[in-house]
């Protein structure tokens, strides 16, 4: 070792090599062509696949914004050195919104109640909520509120880099408090609208919490993957084992929380044994869906629980990186099981599903790393930065 530090090439500054970026763009272009073809050839199947991919991308942005907001509201200092990563995730919310707009354009193929109740007493009872005007109106409201808060919180954070005014931290505390209050309500309603209403006869009072637990767990996994990638390329020098350890503890805890909510919903429905509720799990635990349901629990809870239980595992870059990638895959499986059984009798994962994922996820990866590039690696004039950089010293 000669003590020198490798300097990334200009084309690699965003954390992705030029070759990797070109490859991702080609995959996205091919995925876009497949999705366009699928929209014509197999509309319902393609629209369902687009919804899964759109929820995945939107969840990355929302997971980052929730992490940033929680940091401000709790006045946490440990996460300031890596806060630019979840801020960058919040910065791709416009892409997530665009993906959801595309997904909702195919809503008539997925949400069959949009065609009317047709004498169905339960759908007629839910018609004041489940109707086209209110459904699309609420969607616009949710997306605009989330975009507005993302823009405002990130703008204040960047302004502090220039002025160093500590009062701007207080402003973001207020904005974050308001955002979390709105998010708690709007995300629950969005989960009811976009996912639960696919099977409009079924209902669950903890469904919004379940969807949030999966979203935030995937958000933590994304933060971990991006932060470690940037550190390995010398672009996030402030990330230390102590920060990684806390990310590991949060990931470990929210994996358990996800499993707890999963079990609570299942146990209460199993115990009450009401046909209008049990039909949801009867579909998912029988036939070809059954192995996927068990795999969902293994991937999102059992493996992370066993692997991250020892303290050293949470401080190991390689272990954390692999677990985080596994959880990102688990998020995709979870969304697949939330959406697809209400549309198809058997699991289908072929060219149309691959096309939708290929069209959206590579663009999200490219945009995420480019947003990271646009601002300083750390919020250099945040009053809590020194505490974060010397965390546990």
Offer a concise description of the structure.
The chain is an all-alpha fold and 393 residues long.
Protein described:
With 393 residues, the protein is mostly helical. It has one domain. Helix content is 74%, strand content 0%. The protein contains 16 helices and no strands. Helix 2 runs antiparallel to helix 8, helix 2 crosses helix 9 and helix 8 packs across helix 9. 41% of the residues are buried.
The first-to-last residue Cα distance is 27 Å
Question: Low-confidence segments, ≥5 residues, pLDDT <50?
Answer: 1-13
Strand runs, count: 0
Run of helices and strands? HHHHHHHHHHHHHHHH
Helical percentage: over 70%
Largest sheet: none
Mean pLDDT: 92
Strand content: under 5%
Structural class: mainly alpha
Count of runs of 4 or more consecutive helical residues: 16
Features:
about 400 residues; mainly alpha; about 75% helix; globular
Describe the secondary-structure layout.
Blueprint: H1 18-41, H2 43-73, H3 84-91, H4 93-105, H5 107-110, H6 121-126, H7 132-163, H8 167-194, H9 207-232, H10 241-272, H11 275-284, H12 289-308, H13 311-314, H14 317-339, H15 351-374, H16 385-389
Helix pairs in contact: 1-2, 1-15, 2-3, 2-4, 2-8, 2-9, 2-14, 2-15, 3-15, 4-7, 7-8, 8-9, 9-10, 9-14, 10-12, 12-14
């Amino acid at each position: 070792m000669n003590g020198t530090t490798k300097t990334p090439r200009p084309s690699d500054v965003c954390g992705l090599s030029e070759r990797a970026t070109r490859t991702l763009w080609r995959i996205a272009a091919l995925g876009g062509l497949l999705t366009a073809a699928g929209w014509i050839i197999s509309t319902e199947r393609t629209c369902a696949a687009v919804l899964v991919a759109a929820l995945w991308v939107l969840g990355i942005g929302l997971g980052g914004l929730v992490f940033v907001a929680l940091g401000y509201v709790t006045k946490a200092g440990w996460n300031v050195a890596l806060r630019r990563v979840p801020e960058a995730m919040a910065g791709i919310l416009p892409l997530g919104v665009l993906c959801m707009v595309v997904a909702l354009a195919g809503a008539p193929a997925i949400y069959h109640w949009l065609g009317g109740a047709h004498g169905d007493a339960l759908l007629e009872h839910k018609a004041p909520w489940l109707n086209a005007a209110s459904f699309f109106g609420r969607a616009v409201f949710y997306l605009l509120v989330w975009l507005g808060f993302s823009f405002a919180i990130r703008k204040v954070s960047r302004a502090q880099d220039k002025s160093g005014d500590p009062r701007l931290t207080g402003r973001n505390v207020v904005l974050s408090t308001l955002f979390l209050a709105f998010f708690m309500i709007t995300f629950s309603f969005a989960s009811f609208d976009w996912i639960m209403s696919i099977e409009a006869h079924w209902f669950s009072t903890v469904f919004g919490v379940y969807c949030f637990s999966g979203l935030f767990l995937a958000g933590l996994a994304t933060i971990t993957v991006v932060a470690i990638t940037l550190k390995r390329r010398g672009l996030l020098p402030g990330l230390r084992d102590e920060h990684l350890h806390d990310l590991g503890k949060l990931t470990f805890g929210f994996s358990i929380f996800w499993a707890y909510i999963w079990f609570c919903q299942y146990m209460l429905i199993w115990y009450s044994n009401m046909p209008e509720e049990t039909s949801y799990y009867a579909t998912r635990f029988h036939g070809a869906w059954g192995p996927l349901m068990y795999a969902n629990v293994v991937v999102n809870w059992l493996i992370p629980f066993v692997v991250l239980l020892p303290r050293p595992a949470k401080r190991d870059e390689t272990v954390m990186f692999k677990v985080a990638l596994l959880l990102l895959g688990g998020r995709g499986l979870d969304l697949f099981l939330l959406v697809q059984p209400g549309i198809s009798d058997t699991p289908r994962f072929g060219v149309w599903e691959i096309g939708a994922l290929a069209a959206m996820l590579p663009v999200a990866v490219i945009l995420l790393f480019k947003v990271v590039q646009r601002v300083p690696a750390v919020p250099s004039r945040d009053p809590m930065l020194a505490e974060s950089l010397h965390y546990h010293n």
